[in-house]
Amino acid sequence: MGKCTVFSLFFVAVAYCYLASAFDPSPVQDFCVADPNCTVKVNGFACKNPMKVTADDFYFGGLHIAGNTTNAVGSRVTQVFAAQVPGLNTLGISLARLDYAPGGINPPHTHPRATELLTVIEGSLLVGFVTSNPENKLFTRVLQKGDVFVFPVGLVHFQFNAGKTNAVAIAGFNSQNPGAVVIRNAVFGSNPPINDDVLAKAFQADKTVIDQLQSKI
Ligand SMILES: *[C@@H]1O[C@H](CO)[C@@H](O)[C@H](O)[C@H]1NC(C)=O
Ligand SMILES: *[C@@H]1O[C@H](CO)[C@@H](O)[C@H](O)[C@H]1NC(C)=O
To answer: Where does the secretion signal sit in this chain (predicted)?
Structure first.
């Protein structure tokens, strides 16, 4: 075997390792129902004793109930992730219900571990995501009931209810625990706060503007 082949195999191996760890790992058993009480920390939750697993571990009720949108952004996300449904642990899939009051927004955010597949089941939404390469290109659309839109993993995206009635969407994710980084909260609402000199320089804005943004979160 020539050096090149060895190197190629090495890079193929590295590529596979990377792919295998970029998303939720594939299960190697029927299920691994989360045991939140287990003190052993693993990637995901440790498995509950399979003999103690019941149908309830795979169940979530009440997704027909609208989320409470009486809040500053006028939207609510009801998560159906592994934290809510222990049976989703290790399965690499989850979903959420999203409710939007008229004028409500699900503010710009990213899911570090999942692509999102969103379908509107009531009302209409203005949605969009911004790319990393080509840099900062916005892909945006208005969605009506029955329309589906994809938000690729890790990219900043949003949904806005520009209609006069409530809107409802269901989103699927290819992770049991997609995570959400809300840009506004991460940048202006971190704990402890990011130094306002840093933010003033980064946003080319006056420090009083930065302080005002920080105080709102
Ligand atoms: C975790 O511990 C609590 C308190 O002891 C108990 O009520 C609960 O059933 C336990 N959960 C599991 C999945 O064993
Ligand atoms: C919705 O949330 C608001 C603000 O927290 C609260 O005042 C109101 O009672 C809630 N409504 C319902 C139906 O739970």
So the answer is: 1-22
What domains, with CATH codes, occur in the chain? 50-179 (2.60.120.10)
**Best residue for ligand 2 mutational test, from 70, 73, 99 (most atoms within 8 Å of Cβ):** 70
Query: Is ligand 1 within 6 A of the CB of residue 37?
Result: yes
> According to the 3-state scheme, what is the secondary structure of the chain?
CCHHHHHHHHHHHHHHHHHHHHCCCCCCCCCCCECCCCCCCECECCECCHHHCCHHHHCCCCCCCCCCCCCCCCEEEEEECCCCCHHHCCCCCEEEEEEECCCCEEEEEECCCCCEEEEEEECEEEEEEECCCCCCCEEEEEEECCCEEEECCCCEEEEECCCCCCEEEEEEECCCCCCCEEHHHHHHCCCCCCCHHHHHHHHCCCHHHHHHHHHCC
* Smallest CA separation from ligand 1 atom 8, residue: 37
pLDDT tens-digit map of 124-160: 999 999 999 999 999 999 999 999 999 999 999 999 9
